[in-house]
Every structure is written in C-alpha cells, then in structure tokens.
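User: Just a sanity check before I run the rest of the batch. Below are the structure tokens for the first item. I only need the designed sequence back.
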C-alpha cells in the first residue's frame, strides 16, 4: 500500500502528484529501491465525507496518467 493510498483512505488528498514530489532512496550504489516517500503536502486537503474508490480514481486519474 502506498502513502497516497493510506492518506486517501483517511480522507486526505495530496492534490500535487508528479514525479518531482517523490523522493526515491536506493540501496547503496545499486538500482534497488529502498524507499519511496511522497513530499510537498502543502496543497493537501482533508475531506470530511466518505469517499468511494471510484471518486478517488476520478480525482487522481490525470495524475496517474502523467506518471506513466
């Protein structure tokens, strides 16, 4: 489960997903990924109502496409 998924399940939306907001840490000098952190929560918003997975997908759809 990703940090964005956990935050979304708790009703917190990042609003600024793009490659520059991810910090990737590697294992030593290899290309093996040790961790990935989501940065810059300045635009994050707490949503007070229950949100469906479909609503989350619709919200993040453009951000997801831009990452691929």
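Assistant: Here's the designed sequence for the first item:
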């Amino acid at each position: 489960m990703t940090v964005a998924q956990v935050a979304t399940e708790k009703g917190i939306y990042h609003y600024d997903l793009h490659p520059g907001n991810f910090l990737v840490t590697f294992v030593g000098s290899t290309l093996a990924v040790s961790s990935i952190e989501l940065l810059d929560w300045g635009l994050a918003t707490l949503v007070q109502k229950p949100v469906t997975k479909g609503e989350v997908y619709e919200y993040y759809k453009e951000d997801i496409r831009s990452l691929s």
